[in-house]
Amino acid sequence: MRRLLLLLLLLPGLLFADVVYLKNGSSFSGRILEQTPEKVVIDFGDGTIGLTMDQVQQVVKSSSPLDEFDARASKLAPNDVAGWRSLGEWASMRGLPAQSRAAYKKVLAVAPDDPEAREALGFVRMDGRWLTEEESYRARGFVRYEGEWLTHAEVQLAQADAARDQQRDEAAKRASDAEFKATMDRLQKEEDEKRARDEADRMANNPVYWGSWGYGVSYWPNSAGVPR
Q1: What's the pLDDT tens digit per position in 177-198?
Q2: What are the boundaries of each domain within the chain?
Q3: Which residues have C-beta within 8 Å of that of residue 108, sequence separation ≥ 6?
Q4: Which CATH code for domain 66-134?
Q5: What is the mean pLDDT of the chain?
Q6: DSSP-H helix ranges across 23-131
Q7: What pLDDT band is residue 35 in, cutting at 50, 70 and 90?
Q8: If both were cysteines, with which of 100, 111, 176, 182 could 92 make a disulfide (CB 3.0 to 4.6 Å apart)?
Q9: Three-state SS sequence of 156-191
Q10: Does this model's pTM top 0.85?
Q11: Which CATH architecture has domain 2-63?
């Protein structure tokens, strides 16, 4: 619990937030939207989470950055570009990305070419036009490959590397499979040879054996030197 309180002190944006402490030692900070005897729902700025009360150790309520954002937003006129821009920056600095985006979108609704709002929302200016990040990459000839934007040459190189890696892995697997089979064959051969030796030893030490011509059981000679 002391460690969690220290963490809160190190995160100014959470100093005045509702905090739900869980019995497993973790916590969630934000604004409580709903609390009943069965559950508590908390908004942490970029989403919400619901927790059952049997998980909860303690709930500490106080004014949160979300509350302050709503209070500031309620005082702004729809066409107050400077005010919404300032609020977007304020929300971003306090770890409220969803609220920051909402404020910057208010700016663009009035001033579509506002550079600060455009850049904050991930737009890039190319040839006098504002493009989304994806549009700007595609306009420059990039393609998305395994989560990254690469040139066609880089994609071909990455694919060649991936093919070599796959061939190496397949060769290593074949070698491993062959080694395993050889080991199993050797062990089986050793087991068969041991079984044959054991059978030969048993027959050599057994005074009774079956006749070779099908006449029944024969015996080793008795002390008189004649079969019984």
Answers
A1: 999 999 999 999 999 999 988 8
A2: 2-63, 66-134, 141-187
A3: 114, 117, 118, 121
A4: 1.25.40
A5: 82
A6: 65-74, 81-93, 97-110, 115-120
A7: confident
A8: 100
A9: HHHHHHHHHHHHHHHHHHHHHHHHHHHHHHHHHHHH
A10: no
A11: Roll (2.30)
Structure tokens at 68: 């302050």
> How many Å apart are CA 110 and CA 104, to the nearest integer?
10
Quick one: which H or E segment has residue 144?
strand 143-145
d(CA 89, CA 98): 12
| Tokens describing residue 58 | 């303690």
CA atoms within 13 A on the CB side of 103: 28
Q: What region does 210 belong to: left with phi over 0, alpha with psi -120 to 50, or beta?
A: beta
**Residue type at 183?**
T
Q: Which residues contact 31 (CB under 8 A, 6 or more apart)?
A: 17, 18, 42, 43, 64, 66, 67
**Cα–Cα distance for residue pair 205/161, rounded to 1 Å:** 65
